[in-house]
Amino acid sequence: MSPLLRRAKKKAGERVVTLIGKPGCHLCDDAREVVARVCAEAGAAWEEKDITRDEELHRAYWEQIPVVLVDGEQHTFWKVDPGRLRRALEE
After folding, report:
1. Number of other residues whose CB lies within 10 A of the CB of residue 39
2. Could you report the per-residue pLDDT of 3-34, keeping only the tens digit for each?
3. Which of 12, 18, 11, 9 is nearest to 80 (CA)?
4. Considering 33, 34, 41, 58, which has the largest number of Cβ atoms within 10 A of its Cβ?
5. What is the pLDDT of residue 1?
6. Transmembrane segments in this chain: where (predicted)?
7. Whole-angstrom distance, CA of residue 6 vs CA of residue 20
């Protein structure tokens, strides 16, 4: 029997948070503030993608924006909870 394998724990500085939104979206503005603050505190990198400039993202997320991904996996949408995002970056 093989031992259980666990994913290596990443440090916050190795994580990438992606905010998917669009211009003129007040929820996206709120999410941007939370993501920027939490990532700065944790030392994590973050990027923003505009669904109006990416057809694939638009198809996937247009009803959910803002959407937050952590390392490419969906973390949340609509409202970003700073504590939950912080914990995700520490996992």
Report:
1. 21
2. 444 455 666 668 999 999 999 999 999 999 99
3. 18
4. 34
5. 43
6. none
7. 29
**Is domain 15-90 in CATH 2.60.40.1120, yes or no?**
no
For the sheet with 73-77, list strands across it. 45-50, 16-21, 67-70, 73-77
Q: By the 8 A CB rule, do 44 and 69 touch?
A: no
- Residue labelled with tokens 């603050």: 37
Q: Hunting for tokens 């057809």 — which residue is that?
A: 55
Structure tokens at 56: 């694939």
Q: Which amino acid is present at 12?
A: A
- Amino acid identity of residue 65, one-letter, is I
Residue-range domain boundaries for the chain: 15-90
pLDDT tens track for 58-85: 999 999 999 999 999 999 999 999 999 9
Of 90, 41, 56, which is closest to residue 70 (Cα–Cα)?
90
